[in-house]
Amino acid sequence: MASVSESADSAHTKKPSDSAFKQQKLPAWQPILTAGTVLPTFFVIGIAFIPVGIGLLYFSDEVREHIIDYTNCNKINETTGNETGQTCMDWLKTNKTPAATCHCKIKFSLKENFDNRVFMYYGLTNFYQNHRRYVKSRDDNQLLGNLAPTPAHDCMPFDYSSENNNVKKPIAPCGAIANSMFNDVLSLSESSGNGYQPVTLLNTGIAWDSDKNIKFRNPPGDNLTKAFDGFARPKAWKKDIWDLDPSNPDNNGFQNEDLIVWMRTAALPTFRKLYRRIERTLEKGDYLLTVEYNYDVSTFDGSKQMILSTTSLLGGKNPFLGIAYIVVGVICLVLGIALLLIHIKCGKSTSEMINVNPRTPYQ
Questions:
Q1: CA distance 131 to 15
Q2: Among the four 5, 67, 278, 323, which has the fewest Cβ within 10 Å?
Q3: Which residues are within 8 A (CB) of 286 and not within 5 positions of it... i.e. 6 or more apart?
Q4: Which residue positions in the chain have pLDDT lower than 70?
Q5: What pLDDT, on a 0 to 100 scale, did the predictor assign at position 198?
Q6: Buried b (16+ CB within 10 A) or exposed e, 206-222
Q7: pLDDT at position 81, please?
Q8: CA angle, corner 304, sides to 298 and 308, nearest 5?
Q9: Domain membership flag for residue 110
Q10: How many domains does the chain have?
Q11: How far apart, in whole angstroms, are the C-alpha atoms of residue 174 and residue 180?
């Protein structure tokens, strides 16, 4: 019986196999950090990073931007076209009906030409799209065009809408993200001899191709009105899902690009999202921004901006990256020079170190 027990113990032993890898006998290499290897590294990083940072700053400065905060713009009288002295934000607080709409106009000037392609963004502050429950509040299967009478549980409480006779209808698109979609209407006009002429704003080509072609699909069928029959629009929306862009039938439903842009949540509470494209140069001069003010930011103490921006070879305006490269390069150069001086003044050669200790293993 003892031999059987010993054989069982040996069969279940935890001893690793006798291999070079498991016994940690593989040959190893460990760098020896000396002045001859460390100092050149500092100088190479410093010399390489500073020109790169200067180049990044140059391209960032080439980008032209004009930002208008229209959070507290004054409501205009629809009949006379004059300002009423009341802000649209205050007016919306006292007019909560779905049909309530405020209009305001802001005149501004561009001091220099915005060459080639110009992009119009809307910006929001203090809006936490990165909140965990907010990010999860969507139904990706529904956004792929698979309409079901039961929305995803994550959409609660924006999953059903009570309408006539308290009959509940599933919401499409459901969830907090879709329900809070930005719905201000921005238009731009430029000064001319006969007043102001509208600038053509393109509302397609603003979403990522991967989003529009992979993540969002309309329900099967040619008639979106019929496809969404039996579904309610989100509670905060003024338009139906099939009528978001009456001028372009291909830009409706789940493949509406304004919806797709909004559904890509921002990482920070202050963000901007692409709103329109302008495929021509904006000459310096006077312009007029007309706003259909629908989006109430007073509920989260936020603000709204309209941003006109050009691009460079590296994209939009981002001075931080260039500054970061320059700072790191300067720090490396300063450290390299300081360590070089210390090494020249206090450093000892290998032979000197051997002579100090005659019992060194090198002898």
A1: 49
A2: 5
A3: 107, 108, 109, 190, 191
A4: 1-12, 98, 163-166, 348-363
A5: 94
A6: bbeeebbeebbebbeee
A7: 81
A8: 175
A9: yes
A10: 2
A11: 11
Tell me what pLDDT residue 355 has. 60
| Pair of tokens at residue 271 | 């963000």
Cα-only R_g, the chain: 32
Q: What is the pTM of this model?
A: 0.81
The closest alpha carbon to 308, from 145, 127, 115, 147, belongs to: 115
Which residues, in sequence order, are CB contacts of 167 under 8 Å at separation 6+? none
21-80 pLDDT per residue, tens: 888 888 888 888 888 888 999 999 999 999 999 999 999 999 999 999 999 999 998 888
Same domain as 330, residue 256:
no
Integer CA distances (angstroms), 198 to 25, 96, 156, in order: 76, 30, 42
Spell out the SS3 assignment of 338-358.
HHHHHHHHHCCCHHHHHHHCC
For the chain, report the end-to-end CA distance as a whole number of angstroms: 59
- Are both 329 and 269 inside the same structural domain? no
